[in-house]
Amino acid sequence: MDVRICSKVTCGASASATLTYDYADSMVVVGPLSTRVEPHGYDLCARHAARLRVPRGWRVVRREPLREVD
């Protein structure tokens, strides 16, 4: 498996989240790292995912990883 790195230009950290935009609803969705590289997704390290800033009037939806049930 290839290591995916953060999409931020000056960052070389391992990605841990994937960001996608929903322009129609002025929304940004940040969730667990997607299982595959998506053309409209941006992989982010934990630091950049936590510090994400969006334009005024936009909202951020944060999705947590699914947890296994015993």
From TrEMBL:
It comes from the Bacteria. InterPro entries: DUF3499. It holds the Pfam family DUF3499. This is Alcohol dehydrogenase.
